[in-house]
Amino acid sequence: MQALRASARRAVLRAAGPRSLSLRNPAFRRFTTEAPKPEAPKSSNTALFAGLGVVALAGAGYFFFSSDSAETTAKKGAQAVKVAANFVPAKEDYQKVYNAIADKLEKDPEYDDGSYGPVILRLAWHASGTYDKETGTGGSNYATMRFAPESLHGANAGLHLARTYMEEIKEQFPWISYGDLWTLGGVAAIQEMGGPTVHWRPGRIDGTADNVTPDGRLPDATQGPKHLRDIFYRMGFNDQEIVALSGAHALGRCHTDRSGFDGPWTFSPVTISNEYYRLLLDEKWVWRKWDGPKQLQDKTTKSLMMLPTDYSLVQDKAFKPWVKAYAADEQLFFQDFAKVIETLFELGVPRAQFVSSEGWAMKRKEDQEPEKK
Questions:
Q1: 265 catalytic residue (yes or no)
Q2: Residue 251 pLDDT exceeds 90
Q3: Which helix (H) or strand (E) holds 286?
Q4: Which of 19, 82, 115, 289 is within CB 3.0–4.6 Å of 270 for a Cys-Cys bond?
Q5: The pLDDT value given to residue 81
Q6: Helix H or strand E segment including 63
Q7: CA 192 distance to own-chain centroid
Q8: Model pTM?
Q9: Among 168, 193, 190, residue whose Cα is nearest residue 181
């Protein structure tokens, strides 16, 4: 139903055109500057399934002492028993994790625009976007945002909310690694908010505080095209892929108590569409006069915002043709976005760790038989 509602919201959005938007909590990205790179940590493939959940005792304790309902507690206890028995999960087990994430996305109507989807996607993005192709460090392997100082980096402000959300899922399925959990959450957020199918496969292992990445590996929203290329080229992306990944800003909003910026990018911040690109091109953007950091607002309604990095996409001669292409063709955007987000979520994970040679298509909730949900 979430994807169905997303399709309906997109249809209404297209028909209605620009409209005023009542903002709740004034999102999405807090960014920092470049820092020195550490030596690449050593990894071991032998730790793969051990890394998928060496928490059997904690899980068993939860079974006996949880205040959840009997049914929920029993389910969590069963998962802990699987861990203790050296359980090797199959695709259907990961589908259950996907479903648990999807079930909760819209359970709190008071959170932002009624969905945790955007912040869950941001968690997956930021956990993966620290990759450095030269040193082989960072990326979604190890899930190092669990540890300080990475958890306290300015770019990750507000992501404690997403980590807390995902911790509840982790309690239900203690065998899954945090890296797999967070990236699978990103997939669920995209697909349940009306986005394309994103292929995903498990295999990430949990690291330690020794594996944390230095501050400065994520984009600084106050910068321009050169900075974007410095950040994304470091991960191995090209100009087209930079523009495609930027389409994630169709979702969510910025918060003054996190990034310092304020407002949503689009009129439907819980629906994935190509509106981000259409608005960049079609709206008149002016610099907002306020006490916060430098950002743009739409001249028509003054309810939308764009960051300097967003606006640089239509100022740069190499980026702008891709903005135009995605604004004109949503299916092209969906196709390219799915491909590049799959790549992003696998950055930093040795190929040998993946349990499948190809990514899996996880079923949306609406596409499953009722008894299998």
A1: yes
A2: yes
A3: strand 285-287
A4: 115
A5: 53
A6: helix 56-65
A7: 13
A8: 0.80
A9: 168
Instruction: At 211, give phi and psi (nearest 5°).
Output: -95, 5
End-to-end CA distance of the chain: 13
Q: Express each pLDDT in 50-63 by its tens digit.
A: 444 433 334 333 33
What domains sit in the chain, N to C, each tagged with a CATH number? 2-12+25-34+44-52+89-368 (1.10.520.10)
Instruction: Name the catalytic one among 125, 175, 182, 265.
Output: 265
> Do 211 and 21 form a contact (C-beta atoms < 8 A)?
no
**What are the helix (H) ranges across 70-177?**
70-84, 91-104, 117-128, 160-172
Using CA atoms, how far apart are residues 97 and 346, in angstroms rounded to an integer? Answer: 18
Q: Which of 125, 126, 200, 255 is catalytic?
A: 126
pLDDT, tens digit (0-9, with 9 covering 90-100), for 196-248: 999 999 999 999 999 999 999 999 999 999 999 999 999 999 999 999 999 99
- Report how far residue 52's alpha carbon sits from residue 50's, in angstroms, rounded to the nearest whole number: 5
Question: Does the annotation count 126 as an active-site position?
Answer: yes
Nearest CA to 25 among 104, 118, 145, 152?
A: 118
Can you tell me whether residue 137 is helix, strand or coil?
strand
Q: How far is it, in rounded angstroms, from Cα 254 to Cα 293?
A: 12
Residue 337 has pLDDT above 60, yes or no: yes
Query: Using CA atoms, how far apart are residues 70 and 66, in angstroms rounded to an integer?
Result: 9
